[in-house]
Amino acid sequence: MMTVKQILAPISNEMNEFEIRFRQSMRSKVPLLDKITHYIIRRKGKQMRPMFLFLTAKMLGETNDKTYDAASLVELLHTASLVHDDVVDDANERRGFFSLNALWKNKIAVLVGDFMLSRVLLLSIEKNNIRLLEIVARAVREMSEGELLQIEKARKLDITEEIYFDIIRQKTASLLSTVCESAAVSVEREDQAENMRKFGELVGLVFQIKDDIFDYGDSKDIGKPTGLDIRERKITLPLIYALNNCDKKTKKELINIIKNHNEDSKYVSKAIKIVAENGGIHYAQEKMNSLKNEALECLISIPDSEAKSAIIGLVEYTTQRTK
């Protein structure tokens, strides 16, 4: 498996330049906003979206100002969605840092998210990137619909695999499909826009299933399974498969744990064990690998290059990462 350093090699200059431009895109005359955006930049994660965007662009053409604009738009949208998600989920932490709403309360967090969405609109209009705005706006709609669909369906524990994929396709995969589609558009490769949208969506599904598996995993790198999805009554792929493939008595026990004992560590561990014993984790891994192979098929017609090798390495890393 390629290391992150090897994956980054073809786009190291672009990533450094993007850091500078992204900071500029978040500047404000309001001191409180500047203080908060500085905090957001400091706690950023693995930078997977900019990596996918610049590698896609470089695989298809030459990176340019429009590519940097696309990366800023997507990262602004992603950051806004995280800030709003923390308010929706009433979360106090994200990636080991306090969430904005924990430090500055919900009202300010919502307004900061709104400010970032306004920057998406203004940056698009200032640079006349209407095509990019169209792609990003579609993602905003899909992410909102996915979140609402999940809230609606989570009240009842009857999410089918089909509904599960509808939710994660909109809520999670739509952002990565936006990343890859906007990268193609930024380097004047409209002929690859739809193919890259599909590629990004498939990788986004893979990423989410990997996260689902983590919650049930027992790797030394992760430590003990967190069971966080069970505690939050999130119906994910391993659980859906187990519920559909265990006997009636076990299904009743599993539903009872999720509905009535999801705060109790002993019961949560029992639920994790039931899911594993009924093939839920194995099934999710098989599905994840199948979708990964489907994603890589989208790249077959594209000529080999350093950027293409790196993006294949990044997809492999997505399925094999340990956190």
Structural notes for this entry:
By secondary structure, the protein is mostly helical. The protein has a single domain, classed as Farnesyl Diphosphate Synthase (Orthogonal Bundle). The protein is built from 15 helices and 2 strands. The protein has helices at residues 4-8, 12-25, 31-42, 48-60, 65-89, 100-126, 130-154, 161-186, 193-214, 228-231, 237-245, 248-260, 265-277, 280-297, 306-320; strands spanning 93-94, 97-98. Helix 4 packs across helix 8. The longest helix is centred in the middle third of the chain and has 27 residues, at 100-126.
Please tag this protein with its features:
single chain, 323 residues, mainly alpha, Farnesyl Diphosphate Synthase, two-stranded antiparallel sheet, 75% helix
SSE diagram, text form:
Elements: H1 4-8, H2 12-25, H3 31-42, H4 48-60, H5 65-89, E1 93-94, E2 97-98, H6 100-126, H7 130-154, H8 161-186, H9 193-214, H10 228-231, H11 237-245, H12 248-260, H13 265-277, H14 280-297, H15 306-320
Antiparallel strand pairs: 1-2
Instruction: Kindly name the structural category.
Output: mainly alpha
Total count of helical runs of at least 4 residues: 15
| CATH topology tier name | Farnesyl Diphosphate Synthase
Q: Can you say what the CATH homologous superfamily is?
A: Farnesyl Diphosphate Synthase
Largest sheet: 2 strands, antiparallel
CATH class: Mainly Alpha
Uncertain residue ranges: 219-224
Q: Identify the strand order in the major beta sheet.
A: 1-2
Number of domains: 1
CATH A-level architecture: Orthogonal Bundle
Taking Cα atoms only, what radius of gyration do you get, to the nearest Å?
Answer: 20 Å
Tell me how many strands there are: 2
The helix/strand series, from N terminus to C terminus, equals HHHHHEEHHHHHHHHHH
Q: Considering DSSP H and I runs of 4 or more, what fraction of the residues is helical?
A: over 70%
State the separation between the terminal residues, measured CA to CA.
15 Å
What is the strand content?
Answer: under 5%
